[in-house]
Amino acid sequence: MEENLIPDNVTTSAENSNSGSDNTSSDFASNRSSLPPLKNGICIERRVRKELIDQGILDPDDFPRDDEILSEIKRVRTELSAIAEYNSNELKKLYTLAKDEMRRLELKRKLDSVDQEIIETYKKVVAAKQKRRELTKQERDDIFRLTEEQKKLSDQLEAMLAPGLNNTVN
Questions:
Q1: Splitting the chain (170 residues) into consecutive groups of 10 residues, what average pLDDT does each group show?
Q2: Helix (H, G, I), strand (E, B), or coil: what is residue 125?
Q3: Which pLDDT belongs to residue 22?
Q4: 132: which DSSP letter?
Q5: CA distance 150 to 156
Q6: Crossing angle between the packed helical segments 68-130 and 137-169, to the nearest 10 degrees
Q7: Residue 155 and residue 153: Cα distance in Å, rounded?
Q8: Distance (Å, rounded) from C-alpha 149 to C-alpha 153?
Q9: Within 10 Å of residue 87's Cβ, how many Cβ atoms?
Q10: Quick one: pLDDT at residue 19?
């Protein structure tokens, strides 16, 4: 029985290469350590089971194909794959939302900058009116340009907010 515990591929390779030397045990130890411990344990368990069945000590029905641990591992693996897929989808959604938020914040920053320029221009206009001076063509063009830019940025910001509001309500 002890002879059958040595893996088949190790025994045959050890017999072929060392057909009379005592190095078979050292080859076995090196090959055994190269196998992952779990796989080595499974191989040994299969060989012991096969040997016990071959000798008639156990019936083949005594060992079900899927034991409860293996079925639990499979169940948990399927759960984990479903959770991983869900997490991946959620990460993609969050990434898209974060990109949209960054664009919205950039628009808001530009709008704040234009608002500051409008306030400064308004102060100049008020100062000119107090001095009873007419606005120059440059000042009027600046006012027109700033208000158009403010309107454009404000419309873009509102367009970005409208779909976001629908998502939060649902």
A1: 48 44 49 57 78 82 70 91 96 96 94 94 91 90 94 91 54
A2: helix
A3: 47
A4: T
A5: 10
A6: 150
A7: 5
A8: 6
A9: 10
A10: 44
Model pTM above 0.70: no
pLDDT at 149: 95
Contact 139, 121 (CB under 8 A): yes
Instruction: Report the 10 Å Cβ neighbour count for 75.
Output: 10
Q: Identity (one letter) of the amino acid at 86?
A: Y
- How many other C-beta atoms are found inside a 10 Å radius of the C-beta of residue 14? 20
pLDDT of residue 66: 61
d(CA 124, CA 130): 10
Region of residue 132 (phi > 0: left; psi between -120 and 50: alpha; otherwise: beta): left
CA separation for the pair 135, 11 (Å, rounded): 101
User: How big is the chain by its Cα radius of gyration, in Å?
Assistant: 39
Distances from the Cα of 118 to the Cαs of 63, 104, 130, 157, in angstroms? 83, 21, 18, 18
Contacts of 144 (CB under 8 A, 6+ apart): none
